[in-house]
Amino acid sequence: MHAEASQQSTAAGARAVVPREAEVGTASAAALAAFAARTFPDACPEWMPAEHVQAFIAEGLSERQFAAWLADPNSHVLVAEGPDRALVGYAVCLHGLHDENPEQWAGQRTAYLSKLYVDPESRGAGVARSLFDLALETARADGCAAFWLGVNDENARARAFYLKAGLAVSGRRRFRVGDTLCTDDVLGRELLGA
């Protein structure tokens, strides 16, 4: 699935951002893993031990994991690229039945936005919103009953972004980063009939 290019402006000047669904062979699992390893630590609380962050990256954001997501028809890897085709953001949205589905959607096929990260230099330019909107559009098109995610309860910037984008708090969950057990706010919204 491809989305139209949209013009975004940054402090460095105008930048065209092209959010699209990655296709096997066009999006390198290695490049996505490297980008994820660089951007994930920024979302972690400052007190979290670096070795726990690195353990999560090694297992949950590995090249092997991205290759698996790219090959899975229920996993939607979305990428945003600058005019030079350099990766400036990515999202991973998993469609299906999830053990952690918010209670109100238990037993229903939902879209879980597992990852959404943007290069720090591209923040504030609409990249995150473009990826979010494409993930939401993909979930609707796939007939998912709801769209949801978890965000660390100390990540005020991300939480504010998702609330402004139309999600509502629907619960809490525990999320492990290495040996650190964190508390996430679960945010979501109904898609069927919306």
Keywords:
194 residues; eight-stranded mixed sheet; disordered N terminus; alpha+beta; globular
N-to-C series of helices and strands: EEHHHEEEHEHEE
Strand content: 35-45%
Helix content: 25-40%
Strand order in the sheet with the most strands: 1-2-3-4-5-6-8-7
Oligomer: single chain
What sort of overall outline do the alpha carbons produce when their principal axes are compared? globular
Q: In a few lines, what is going on in this structure?
A:
The chain has 194 residues and is an alpha+beta fold.
Description:
The chain is of the alpha+beta class and 194 residues long. It is built from five helices and eight strands, in the order E-E-H-H-H-E-E-E-H-E-H-E-E. Strands 1-2-3-4-5-6-8-7 form an eight-stranded mixed beta sheet, sandwiched between helices. Helix 4 (127-141) links the parallel strand 5 (110-118) and strand 6 (146-152). Helix 1 (29-39) packs across helix 3 (63-71). The chain is globular, with a radius of gyration of 16 Å. The two termini are 22 Å apart. Residues 1-16 have low confidence and may be disordered.
Describe how the helices and strands are arranged.
Layout: E1 6-10, E2 13-21, H1 29-39, H2 50-60, H3 63-71, E3 75-81, E4 87-96, E5 110-118, H4 127-141, E6 146-152, H5 156-164, E7 168-177, E8 180-190
Parallel strand pairs: 5-6
Antiparallel strand pairs: 1-2, 2-3, 3-4, 4-5, 6-8, 7-8
